[in-house]
Every structure is written in structure tokens, then in C-alpha cells.
User: Fold these one by one.
Assistant:
Number 1:
Amino acid sequence: VALSLLVAADVSLGSADSDAQWLARFARERRNPPDLVIEAGTHMRARHPAHYLVHALVAERLAREKHPATLSWLNHAIYLFPTHPDLHLIAAELLASAGHKSQALLEYRLAVEYSFYSTRFLNAVAARFPAVEDMLAATPAEAPRLRELGDWLTGKNRRADAERVYEQAILLDGENVPTLQALIRLALARPDA
């Protein structure tokens, strides 16, 4: 009842986007307990059942609190917007925290695949799973994506790992000039060259 009055006072049957903006502010407020955020999300979900952002905002807040209802809200958000990289990043982080490495790497891979710029997602993977094998598992097996990973590794001064990744990219696309150039630069920078 208290939430209904709060929502009625603050949201005047607006659009899904304006309601989502309200929910974002509400969910960000630390003083609002998770159960009240769930109640607000449930109210918004009834008004906008196909708006992924309602589910995503509640899931994001619940994930920070390690609330047991997180996966339910997150799964529904992913169902509504399966190519949103941030949703897969949240899933990956939850799975990694629970010790489900292979599932987490799959979710990281989806986050990288669906992202335009993968740097933020590669940073997240490396924070939990820095081994090059894990980084490869979290990167789509496509030459351009592997080159991005190789560039990222080069930037982190992990040259031997970058060389390995570039070589895998060349196996997939032997005529990829930017990858060939990056591999040549690494070879020329080696002390034994």
C-alpha cells in the first residue's frame, strides 16, 4: 500500500521509459530495501511487461545485495533482450561468484560478442580469470574479436599471450591484415629479433 501511494504520487502513468527512469532512481537509493525495490519492480512490470529495463534495474540492484531473487529478475531481462551485453555481464559475475567458472565464461563470451567495444568486458573477465586460456574461452572464436583480445593483451604487456591469440586469429582468417601487422610488430619487438 505504501509503495502504491509512492508510485502514484511520483509516476503519473508515464511511458515505459519514464517509469524506468523513476525505477532507476528508486533502485539506486540505498535507503530503499531490496524487498521494496522488488515491489516497485513488480508494480512496473505489471504496467510494462515487455520492457526489459524494468527487470534489469531490479536485477542489478538485487545482484549488489546478493538477494536470492536476482536470477529470476535477470533471466526475465535476458529473455526480453537477449543481446544486451550488460545483462550477460551481470550473469557472468553472479556465476563466477558462485564458483561456476565454465558457465561464467560462457556469459562473459556473450557479453563480449554482443558488445561494440569489448574492453570493459575483457577487464571484467581478467579480474576473475586472468589466464589466457580463460580469456580465450570468454572471447568469440572470430578473427576480429581475437584481434581485439590480442590488442588488449598487448596493451597489458602480456606479449606472449597476445602472440598466441593473434596466431589463433590468423588460423581463422589468414588474410586479416591488421592481425598480421600486429603479429609482425610483436615479433619485431622481441629481444631475439
Note: Confidence is low (pLDDT under 50) at residues 1-12.
Number 2:
Amino acid sequence: NEQLIDYCLSNVFAKLSNDAKYLINILLYKIDSISPAEIIYIAQMEYDECMQSINELITCNFLEQNELGLYALTSFSREYLRKRICDDLDDDKIKKNIKKLEFDMENLMMDKHLKYINRPLSLFPKNAEEKIATLYMLKFIECSKDHTILENEKLKEMEKLFNAAQQAAPSFADIYKVAAYLYLKYKKYDLT
């Protein structure tokens, strides 16, 4: 019976996309459940690509979502994958990105934009998704600092950062407040 399951999982695993296999490696390192925003931040993938790979893993019963919207490998897929970790994927990159996320989350509260209530550029994250959105928005704010040089390349980068924040925590009002404030301040870009 165990050989049959192993055979079936091997066939399914072989047909997974490279992006899905990359997410599996991330999920093998993260023992706890993980939010979609954390997966995207660690994988450094575009939202749509990442969600497509997540859906692929759910469809193949490698991944499950709990009632809080967090993802984890299914118990039987984790057991199977522990025996057969992909050697062709860049484990050092994953470890580095996970450590970067942990470091960024720990140091987030030291940022001046998180200390003051009622300031236009203040951000107050309450959960992991909002913290990740805040990380993107802090980069967004940095990008907007030299408002005399908001050329197309910088605008595209700002739009990408805003979209990443929006996708990480779509109901986090502070990201919209910050973007609206900067839009009104410089009247140079539109992020709608």
C-alpha cells in the first residue's frame, strides 16, 4: 500500500511545474503553516505566478489551506517529500530569503513610519500579511523620496511595490492611505 502511494506521488511530483517544486522546497523549510504573502515574499515571485503554483499544489493534494487561510504541506506529501527532496533547487537561496523575512519582520517595529499615530506615512501592521505589506510600502516610500525625479522607471517600481503590498494585505487600509498621501503630495503618479 505504501509503495502504491509512493509510486502515485512520484508520478504527480514529476509532472509539477518548476515553480510548484520551488514552493515545495520553501514549505519543507517552514514547518508551520505559512501565509500566501510570506510564500510570495520568500519565493520572490509575482503574485499571479505564485498563486498559480499554490493552486497546482492544492489540486495535486500536496498542499492544504486551513481555516485561517494559511498553507501547509499535507501530512502524506510532507512524509513523501522528506524522503525525496529536490537536489536541483537552490536551497541556499530559500534559506537566505527565509532569514531575510525573519530579520525584516523583527526589525520592522524600529522603523520611524511605524512609531507615530496620525502621521500620513504611518503604518500599523497587526498580522504577518500586514507586516509584509508594510515592508513593501516602506520601499515604496523610499522610492518616492526624490520627488523631483519621478521618472517612468521609478514610477513602475513604485507601482510594482504598491501592487505587491496590496496583494499581500488587500484590506490593510494604511497602504492606501500612504499611497493617497504621496499621490496628493506630488500629483505625479496614479496607482489606481
Note: The two ends are 54 Å apart (CA to CA).
Number 3:
Amino acid sequence: NEYKQAIIALEKSKCINPSFALARLVMALSYKRLANVKAAESCFKDALSLSPDNEVALTGLAMLFYDAGKLYQSLEVAERILILKPETLSIRKLRSNILFHLGRADESAGEIRILAEEDPGFRDFETFIDAVSPEIFEDRFGTLPDKIDLLEKKISLSEKTEDLMALSLCHLFNGEKDKAIDFLFKARALQG
């Protein structure tokens, strides 16, 4: 196997130059590919002992913990990365997922709000939504505000995932991004 051969070669290079952090990073990634979580974690931590702010090692370790279901450890590493580089959007997405799985939906939604402001993909979608005239949603059921009122009344009686999703979309098309995110997270929480 190529990964095993790479590990053998990297072990030899580690003996030649013990302070070469890149060798430990590649070893960690190779061990991760071989599903040897314990060895991968050890290599990531070795790399971090040589270079404590190494973003690749921190990201690899955060993902390793996340994939292994070690959510608190993953969150701790993700937050460390965000202290070093708050603009790292992929780690914000990871943090949002971790928080949601930990039952901290409000904090997860907060991360989504930050992403909505900073991530170009979110901004491009928002520009597209803003370009759609709310009048396009008028039909025999009324205007967009009418539909929002109807769905809010319906939800006050019984919260159903599909109604929360519909209300989230209505708020999004009505230009109310924060309310859309709130209802989306309520729907997501109902699904478990």
C-alpha cells in the first residue's frame, strides 16, 4: 500500500531531521487514510509540538476529532484556529456543525449569520434573492407577507418541519435573512 510505504519513508526522514514538521503532517494524513485515528492524532500533535500555530495540523486534528465523534475536542481545536485566523470560513462551517450536534443551535445559527455576511457564496445567493421581486410570489394564497402570517399562525398551533422550512424560505424571499436562519434551525432541531 502506498500510504504504508510513505509512512516508512517518513519515519526514516524523521530520524534524519527530527524537527521537520511537514514529515509528521504527511504521516498524520497517511495514517488518517489508513483509518488509524490514534496514530494520526499522535502525528498531528507531534507536528503541533514543533509548530504550535500550524494551521494545516490544527485543521487536520479538528477534522480527525470531528470524524471520530470527539466533538468537544474538535470544537476546542476549531476555536483555537479561529483565534489565530478568524477569517477561516471552512472552520466557521465546521464550528457551526459541531455546535449544532452538541445541541447548541443558537450558537450554531450565530456562526451561520457570520458566514452569511462574510462568505462570498452566501453573498452571491443573497444578491440573487434580492433580485427576485416579492410580487412573483403572489398567487391565490396571497402575498408573501400574507403567507408568512398564515404560516406563523399554523406553527403557533403545531410546529412541523415542513411548515418551518416554508416559513424560513418565505422570510428569506422577503429579505429577512436572520428570521430565515432562525426558522431553518428550528426545523433542523425538530428533525433531531
Note: The radius of gyration is 23 Å.
